[in-house]
Amino acid sequence: MASPPHVRELTVDDLTDAWHLGRRAFGSDPQPAPHATVAVPGLIRYGAFDDTGRLLGKAVDLHHEQWWSGRAVPAADVAGVAVAPEARGRGVARALLTGLLRGAHDRGAAVSALFPTVTAPYRACGWDVAGVMRTVDVPTVALPRHRPAPHLSVRAGGPADMPAVVALYERLARDRRGMLTRRGDLFDPHTTADTLPFDGLTLVEDDGHLVGYASWDRGRGYRDDAVLTVHDVLATTADAARELVGVLASWHSVTPTLRLRLLGGDAVGAHLPLEAVREHKQEPWMHRPVDVTRAVAARGWPTHTRGTVEFTLTDELAEWNTGTWRLTVADGAAQLTRVTADVDLHLSVRGFALLYSGASTAASVADAGLLHATGTDPRALDLLAAGGAAHLLDYF
Length: 396
Fold this sequence. Notes:
By secondary structure, the chain is α+β, with helices and mostly antiparallel strands. Helix content is 20%, strand content 34%. The protein contains 9 helices and 18 strands. Strands 1, 2, 3, 4, 5, 6, 7, 8, 9, 10, 11, 12 and 13 form a 13-stranded mixed β-sheet that branches. The chain has a 5-stranded mixed β-sheet with strand order 16-15-14-17-18.
């Protein structure tokens, strides 16, 4: 029987082999991108090796933060997981993710998200589907046009405007759950570069203050197959949202299709003709705790929510999460403390992920076999789900 793979951080000398492994797994370009074989601040690459030192698999821990109801929660978001074809089905991915979680725990991360190519291996390791990032196509001609608001000005933005753009994004993202802060080593270069990271930036201002923006790539052509791809279209007022939708509508003669990611319940979505939307892509994303005590303490909670519930938690990959816990929520904050009492609610780490992210209810988690209640109403654990559903707008 082969010995378990050895997992460690990759060195610069390992990165060419890691890139080749990823290229075979994901079918990427035959030449590496400039960042692929050099050290990159803001992430840690892990590799799994056999006894001879051959690389069997790799994974990346991205040092993100996620907004959770007004608080930035340190995250270990996972990307680039790949296993050599001849090593698949032999526990390599599980060993990689166990090592990544341990390293993330040691550096202070609280939660983790990822976009899976397939969900089953990640569910086996404690992640579960928390939401779907929807990219849709809208006929540009269907966008409504409004009379311009006289108190607003619309202009093209440039690199110097990026700090204000990021600040507006954070103004909108911070009160939601799950969205990245777009701060730190992986994002800062975009705010200090001499060129924009996309083709165009449209700004809406009110007395010199940014109240909305759209970032976009023009694409190629001007006939029936032309597409204007919008990365962000965000506004803090209804008037700003109408201005942005009107600017996007002005592309109808050369780009018949507008492609964008929807953010449910926002100001711009209230002015889009959702009946004309066609699905372009749906990308499920998954969530799990790295450290349950940090995950609960670091996030914001609804100020009107109060309560206490006790439960046991089982986490095979992150044993520091396993145990019996008391969750106490009050005054916009919460904490988990270990207890020794016998309890009637028994929660898996996948169930924790579904509740924490607002993706499900306790009753539904129980129906799925991820929460077992002995003589107790499982809905007591809806306390963990307080705050609503989580969202992501960034693919990684």
